[in-house]
């Protein structure tokens, strides 16, 4: 057995020694190289979006949409009942994200339907059904085995 003492523990404030075989540069020099090199040349997204600005009504709706979330335990339960076995948290998060986008698209289409029909007040179930029918037609989707009662006549 080797009775040598272990190397001393480095403190956070101490400077890391240069490592042989790694170009001899310390971590600080490496980070400086990155910040001056390729990372600095990475394009930063512009602060103004390329899409046209939202109307005040759309901005308010987007804020509500951004803050809203579907219940992950309920999504997990739904996915598990469809698959027939338990799904991971990551799967339920992904499905919840897609479901949120889907609901947002259906609501936008339902608002378009409401405007076309000249309806007043909030979105009705008829607006949602028509929006879903148009969504299926545009995307050429067919829902065979599993369909919720809300979207049926």
TrEMBL record:
Which stretches are tagged as biased composition: Low complexity?
38-49
Give one GO biological process term.
RNA polymerase II preinitiation complex assembly
Quote the CDD domains the UniProt record gives.
Answer: HFD_TAF11
- Which terms are listed as keywords in the entry? Nucleus, Transcription, Transcription regulation
Q: Does the keyword Cell membrane apply?
A: no
Looking at the record, the residues that make up the TAFII28-like protein domain are: 54-134
Q: Where is the composition biased (Basic residues)?
A: 12-21
Q: Which SUPFAM superfamilies match?
A: Histone-fold (SSF47113)
Q: Listed GO molecular functions?
A: protein heterodimerization activity; RNA polymerase II general transcription initiation factor activity
Where is this chain's protein located in or outside the cell? Answer: Nucleus
Where does it sit, as one GO cellular component term?
transcription factor TFIID complex
Keyword Nucleotide-binding in annotation? no
Source organism superkingdom: Eukaryota
Instruction: Spell out the residue ranges making up region: Disordered.
Output: 1-60
In the record, the note on similarity to other proteins reads: Belongs to the TAF11 family.
What protein name is recorded for this chain?
A: Transcription initiation factor TFIID subunit 11
